[in-house]
Structures are given as C-alpha cells and as structure tokens.
Design brief:
The protein is an alpha/beta fold. It has two domains: 6-208, DHBP synthase, CATH 3.90.870; 237-347, Vitamin B12-dependent methionine synthase, activation domain (Cobalamin-dependent Methionine Synthase, domain 1, Roll). It contains 14 helices and twelve strands. The strands form two sheets. The protein has a ten-stranded mixed sheet, with helices on both faces. α13 (352-362) crosses α14. The longest helix is centred in the middle third of the chain and has 30 residues, at 237-266. The radius of gyration is 30 Å and the shape is elongated. The termini are far apart.
Length: 383
C-alpha cells in the first residue's frame, strides 16, 4: 500500500481509463479509494477482502456494528449477492436503480465476505454516476460508505474527503462537487412489511407508489386490533373474525415455542427433547405452562404480579384492564414450571373457610375474594 495518496481529476472523460486502472491496483493491494457517487463522495474498498473492509471502517472511525453498503454496477449483480429477494424488492430496484436507493436484502450464505455485523444481510445499491459505475464494472462490487469521519458532514467534494480521511485513502477520484449532502434512502426488505431504515434522497411517496404498505422511518406497523376495528367499521365481520382467530392462534403458538426454547435451551432441562408436532400438541414434554384465570389458578389478579415483576406493559405494550383482561385480546401470559413431575390440575369448588383464608393471605375482604373466585365458589355468598 502506498504511503502518499494519489489525486486524479476524472471530470475529463479522457482521464477515466487511467484512473480506473490505478484504482484497480489500489483495490488489489487492499487499499481504499474515494470515488464520486450520485449522492455524496464515498470511500470504497474490495467488498470481498476482510482486510480492505477493515481498513475502510478504521479510516472512518467506525465499528463493525455499522457495516458498509455494497455498490454494484448493474441490477443483475444482485442475484449473485442476495437470495430470496422479494418481488417487491425487485420492483423497487427496477424503478429506482440506478439511483439513490439502498436495499437491505438477505446475503447469499455461500459468500465468504466479512462486511461486519450484518446479521446475514447485505445493503445493495446501483449508483447513478458514470465514474462510479465505470469503476464498478471494472473491479466488481465495492464496500462503500460516505467519505467522512464518523460524526462529521458527508463530503460533497474530493478535497473535503481528503481533508477528513488524509492518507488513510490511497486514491482520490475527483469528479467535481456533488449537488446535495442527502444520502441514499435505505429500505429494509428483510422484514414484513418493508421499512424505511433511513430516509434520504428518494421520497417516501415515490417508494409507496411501488410498495403501498411500506413503513416510514420510525413508523410502527398497524396492530391486529386496529385492523380488526377497521374491518368491523367496514361491516366486514368475516375478515374481523378470521383475523381475531389468527391472532389468537399465533399468540398461543408463540407461547408454546417460547416454552420449548425454555425447556431445551434457556433452562436446558430437556436438551435432548425431540418431539414431533403431534407429541407437542399432546403435551408429552416435561413441565407445564399454567396461567392466571385458568383451572389451575382461577384468580385473574395474579396477572398483576407478573406485570409488576416483568414490567410487562412497558416491555410488551400489553395492558391489563380493571377486570384483568389483556389488551390486545390476542395476548398470552402465564408461568413456565420445569419440574419433570409437574402436571396440570383443576381447582374445584371452594368452601367459605378456604375463601376466607385466601382473602386473608391476599389482603382482601371476603367480598373481594368471592368476587374474583365466583366461578369456583361452592356456596352462595351473603348479600
């Protein structure tokens, strides 16, 4: 790697061929290149060289938790770098590439690159800049981030980039000033619905013309309760009932899945558990999952203890009503008991002496205990 940076004016097309050849040498030597893009100037490195990407990240003063996007010369390259690309992501690429739109997609698992802590994703973009695309056609995909030190303004000129990055960059390609500091818009296509991860040059309304249910940056998806209310307002009872049922089943399924993880992973009481779906439905595993308000614990107010211990409303958004119902309705609560001999049971009819003892332990009046335990009373309360 050279000790002194080169600075090449590529605003003259005649100089571009030599500049690309020099950039190819720098990138092959695991160095970094500052290049113009259609947004701001970027600092780029060979995307397939972990050492080169590390040099880029160090030059910016950034950590591995902020991996750089990858610029590609042509939309067709996307298929080699990402897999399971949704049709709507293809539609966004078709509409806005080349251009200032970055798409986060699932990375091809067979690729050996190391861009940082990507969690199996890759952010791809085809820039709408002749110099950048000529370079990308010549050298292949490049890891590229804005040409500035982290926390400083993005560079709109090669000189500004050099003042921040200095000789940590081996080659600067100067194509004149960029017109805007606006970065590209980033859309996360690995979630449903798609979400704007960073609002930039491409406006939200233009994106929604292609993907109508796209979430804006920071916007939360509508919850099932809101959709159900909308169906009922439209007098579409069938869709409301169907969605309510689906939401209930998904909540129960999630609770069962968490119970399985607790048994096999988190507590590890049953690390070798290997049950098929029928066995799981038949509850042939060890341990139980009782819940307040059900036969083994008819007292709904025990939910309050759970909510206090877990700060449940703050952490999940699930509220308790005065009658101890959970909102939204498609919610589940309870306890996981791991003992291999634990089993479900039913609290039968309660005598007055039992209810009086329970009221004393709860700090209730007898009338309060009778109100909460009314389905289980084995006697008629006094008025």
């Amino acid at each position: 790697m050279t000790d002194v940076s080169d600075f090449i004016d590529v605003s003259d097309p005649a100089a571009l061929e030599d500049a690309v050849a020099r950039a190819r040498e720098v990138l092959a030597d695991r160095g970094c290149v500052v290049l113009p893009t259609d947004t701001v100037y970027g600092i780029g490195a060979d995307a397939f060289s972990p050492l080169a990407v590390a040099v880029l990240v160090a030059a910016k003063g950034r950590s591995r938790t902020m991996p750089p996007p990858v610029l590609i010369a042509d939309r067709r390259v996307m298929a080699g770098l990402a897999y399971d690309v949704p049709e709507e992501a293809e539609a966004l690429a078709g509409r806005f590439w080349p251009g200032a739109l970055t798409l986060i997609l699932k990375s091809q698992p067979t690729l050996t690159w190391d861009l940082g802590e990507t969690r199996g994703t890759v952010a791809l973009r085809v820039p709408d800049d002749a110099v950048a695309r000529e370079l990308l056609y010549a050298v292949g995909p490049m890891a590229v981030s804005s040409a500035n030190r982290t926390g400083m303004d993005a560079a709109t000129t090669a000189d500004a980039a050099r003042s921040m990055l200095g000789e940590s960059v081996a080659l600067y390609l100067d194509a004149g000033p960029r017109e805007s500091r606006d970065p590209s818009t980033i859309v996360d296509c690995t979630v449903t619905p798609f979400r704007v991860a960073r609002q930039g040059s491409v406006p939200l309304e233009e994106l929604r013309a292609v993907v109508p249910d796209l979430l804006a940056e920071g916007e939360e998806p509508p919850v099932a309760a809101e959709r159900i209310a909308a169906f009922k307002e439209e007098l579409d009872d069938y869709s409301a009932i169907l969605l309510e049922s689906l939401a209930d089943r998904l909540a129960e399924a999630f609770a069962e899945r968490m119970h399985q993880r607790v048994r096999t992973e988190l507590w590890g009481a049953e690390p070798d558990e290997d049950l098929d779906n029928d066995a799981l439905i038949a509850e042939r595993y060890h341990g139980i999952r009782p819940a307040p308000g059900y036969p083994a614990c008819p007292d709904h107010t025990e939910k309050q203890t759970l909510w206090e211990l877990l700060d449940a409303e703050a952490n999940t958004g699930i509220e308790l009503t005065e009658s101890m119902a959970m909102l939204p309705g498609a919610s589940v609560s309870g306890w996981y008991l791991a003992h291999p001999e634990s089993q479900y049971f039913v609290v039968g009819r309660l005598g007055r002496d039992q209810v009086e003892e329970y009221a004393a332990r709860k700090g209730w009046t007898l009338a309060e205990a009778e109100q909460w335990l009314s389905p289980n009373l084995g006697y008629e309360p006094e008025d």
